[in-house]
């Protein structure tokens, strides 16, 4: 008689609100596509219940989970270990559970780098990073760890930009400085990569970061973190001027690939996850 196994591998996400988080659809589609007997459970976990949720995941021998807002910083005190970039960034969005030990990583910047690597190596590059929130912080640290030469962080509130620039300077080999974002920004000619890491464009295909579009030149790489809609106005303008463009969908999908690799030790092809998200976003 064949040996049957009725126990599935468990993974999931803790956030609140969680109703509009499409990660579950993306990861479950990949599990089904590869006939992996695993589930991803999208859990609404209020701040006061995070400790119990983490203990529950450990007790039920989940192999890992994502953490989204508002838990990315609060989860750290419940973990046993942090990956290097998560420690520098000070935020965790992906936890692996191995032999009962909880290891926190931050995949925001890693997902971005995986997407970027398809068109360019970050090493030695000069970057202009728009925004200074959580996404910008993760991207800046990973670019620094990947040996970018120089990162300028541009934000309306320059104090927030300076926090990121000093993190990069203190923890990586990259040089970093700050520019206050006041009026329309110009992209200097020696910049190799422009990244929109603001929330401008989320849910609004016509929103455009205040930029002098004539400074988007051929050869420049222009990346946007906005996953929905993926073809933001910035990317459309950049493409029209001969730039190489990268959308935020790639960053999100690669975070799924990295999470599954952490939890299951398997590198899945991103295609099925990408198609699932595209279908969901086009139905919005
Ligand atoms: P935060 O709220 O932490 O930061 C938002 C940033 O956007 C701030 O720097 C803010 O500037 C800036 N900003 C917002 N509106 C404007 C404006 N009108 N003009 C100039 N700057 C503006 O958000 P996150 O960093 O967490 O997320 C940013 C975006 O990244 C979100 O849209 C999110 O969906 C996306 N994201 C995508 C991921 C992916 O995998 N594709 C992963 C994570 C995030 P200020 O400080 O001056 O207010």
TrEMBL record:
Annotated keywords: Amino-acid biosynthesis, Aromatic amino acid biosynthesis, NADP, Oxidoreductase
Binding site residues for shikimate: 68, 93, 108, 255
Residue ranges constituting the Shikimate dehydrogenase substrate binding N-terminal domain according to the UniProt record: 25-95
Catalytic activity, as annotated: shikimate + NADP(+) = 3-dehydroshikimate + NADPH + H(+)
Domain of life of the native organism: Bacteria
Binding site for NADP(+): 84, 131-135, 225, 248
GO molecular function term, any single one: NADP binding
CDD domains: NAD_bind_Shikimate_DH
List of catalytic residues: 72 (proton acceptor)
GO biological process: amino acid biosynthetic process; aromatic amino acid family biosynthetic process; chorismate biosynthetic process; shikimate metabolic process
NCBIfam families (UniProt xref): aroE
Function as written in the Swiss-Prot or TrEMBL entry: Involved in the biosynthesis of the chorismate, which leads to the biosynthesis of aromatic amino acids. Catalyzes the reversible NADPH linked reduction of 3-dehydroshikimate (DHSA) to yield shikimate (SA).
HAMAP family named among the record's database cross-references: Shikimate_DH_AroE
Subunit note: Homodimer.
Protein's name according to its UniProt entry: Shikimate dehydrogenase (NADP(+))
Organism from which the protein derives: Gluconobacter aidae
